[in-house]
Predict the 3D structure of the following.
Amino acid sequence: MLDLRHTVENLDSVRASLARRGPVAVASLDGVTPLAGRRRDLIRRADELREKRNGANREMAAADKNSEAFAKARDALRAVGDEIKATEADLAKVEAELSELLLRVPNVPGADVPAGTDSAANPVVRVWGEPPAFAFEPKAHWDLGVALGIVDFERAAKLSGPRFAVLVGDGARLERALVQFMIDVHVRDHGYTEVLPPYLVSRKAMLGTGQLPKFEEDLFHVEPGDLFLIPTAEVPVTNLHADEVIDAPLPLKYVAFTPCFRAEAGSYGKDVRGLIRQHQFHKVELVKFVAPEKSGEELESLTANAEEILRRLELHYRVVTLCAGDLGFSSSKTYDLEVWLPSQGAFREISSCSNFGDFQARRAKIRYRPGPKDKPRLCHTLNGSGLAIGRTWLAILEQHQQADGSVRIPEALRPYFGADRIAPRAR
């Protein structure tokens, strides 16, 4: 959430910054403008009344306690006191309404975020590796997986409907190997602390990271309890420190493996085949709590940590910076990691690494103490996929497929998988 005071006192500059996102972002401020004016009037009136109260106090102090002047000043003091209370109550109500409106206003793009309206304007930062060369026509992962007998979409649809998958045999084994490999690299080599959070969270937790109130239709709601299935581990892990003052040295770095559940309400007709866009999938998530002056370099470090997984898995990928019009609701800056899919002849997102500034910390009330006697400050939060398991699974199938229909297992993953390839089923 944007800072209330800064926003209402600098509406024109905030509006100009949000204009980089597009007209919808600017429109989210429409209800703020009249309330900001009402707030300004109430603050001015409260200041005037306090000055009037001070004058009545001075008159009482100068008058004889038994005089008519003293009684008149006392009555005036009581009246102005009542008016101050009423004005402050009105101000609190207006500020509560402003806070509610600001929950629907997106974050301001960082100054170094490129201009643009959609993904076509996202500049490429770097490319790693080369696209694999095949002496045959490469297959899509859904055809490869079915031919290898390691994924079953039909039985998943029978169980749960579309956009689900059952992984079988070496398919399940590969998924499990990827999880353990990623967690080990991030804990052992990158210094993250592993956590295993709940998969159901409260409405307050969803509000804290920005999924609510704007994106409720994309979530799976569970009754009783008014709980939500997590769309990403970002939600429970970031909220580990909600309503807290962190006294430990920053940065705090967490990694979590969880299932993720997404209704994908606005995506019907997109990626209906395969594992690209599922209602349920697994992900290894990286979350950081950092000092504000360090958040830029910490985003670079987090992105490099996610990239390291792709490099060790020998997967050709690129990194793009999201332009202002393509940023997620809560993000001030995002790098997308996009892996090459030979069957599509295109790069597809496999991780988003974002700096949220103090946007989430303000919503979730996450602060830190810079020094033993220092006043608590809002920290900055960051997160990124390190990586999405299903998309890594399918990228391995597509990039490492062989002419005989088998799939080569990258060398770094073999100790976890227990073999150097997935062989075709015996006919």
Notes: The mean pLDDT is 95. The first strand starts at residue 124 and ends at 128.
